[in-house]
Design brief:
- The chain has 203 residues and is mainly beta.
- The protein has a single domain, classed as Jelly Rolls.
- Helix content is 8%, strand content 39%.
- It has 2 helices and 13 strands; from the N terminus they run βββββββββββββαα.
- Strands 1, 2, 3, 6, 7, 8, 9, 10, 11, 12 and 13 form an 11-stranded antiparallel beta sheet that branches. It has a two-stranded antiparallel ribbon with strand order 4-5.
- The termini are far apart.
């Protein structure tokens, strides 16, 4: 597999503090997307990391959390939440994240890719209307939260290799779920996202 060269977005020093937590925000990321640098406390017994605290966030708070194990060469996505926000943290292994902003008139990056690893830990915050995919070159485990309980009406999907996404995944034939293999085209997903915002269903 060819080496994928990605911007080290998680190393950006600028950010804002909220509830005592450093939040990384940058024009290299779609508007509203944030990477939160998590603090790990280690001693001879192991370590502890606080992943989420309500006071750290002004975005909609999670209604549910799941733990997902991603096998080597598996890709999950590209998915888009119509109304809810998503939260992700890689707690084992490495994920390559692809983000694409389907909302109208983006003021920052439209598409971006970066690595999300467990060393150090970061929490990724993804607004509604921003598409996301996770690819595991060698297997990974993540915790994933959403601000609404899972329901099919909230989630859209488009093919991972849609050229409009402008995401250069480092794989030619990733392992996909049946749903992701049957995902629709980019135009259908973006039309729905734009329509939601036209009638003010989602900010």
């Amino acid at each position: 597999m060819p080496e994928l060269v990605l911007p080290e977005i998680v190393c950006i020093e600028s950010g804002v503090r909220q509830g005592g937590m450093q939040i990384i925000q940058s024009t290299a990321l779609p508007h509203g997307v944030a990477l939160m640098s998590l603090k790990t406390h280690a001693d001879h017994r192991g370590d502890l990391t606080e992943v989420f605290r309500n006071e750290w966030h002004s975005s909609p708070l999670p209604a549910e959390w799941i733990v997902g194990r991603v096998q080597a060469n598996a890709l999950r996505g590209v998915h888009v939440r119509r109304h809810s926000w998503a939260y992700a943290c890689a707690i084992a292994g490495e994920l390559i994240v692809g983000l694409h902003d389907l909302r109208p008139h983006p003021t920052a990056a439209r598409s971006v890719m970066f690595r999300l690893t467990n060393a150090p830990l970061h929490l990724l915050v993804i607004p509604s209307g921003v598409g996301y995919g996770f690819y595991a070159p060698e297997g990974a485990t993540l915790i994933f939260g959403t601000s609404e309980n899972s329901n099919s009406a909230d989630q859209l999907a488009c093919r991972w290799d849609s050229p409009e996404l402008n995401l250069s995944w480092p794989c030619a034939a990733p392992e996909l779920s049946a749903e992701d293999r049957a995902a629709g085209n980019y135009a259908a997903a973006r039309t729905t996202v734009l329509a939601d915002r036209t009638i003010n269903l989602s900010p």
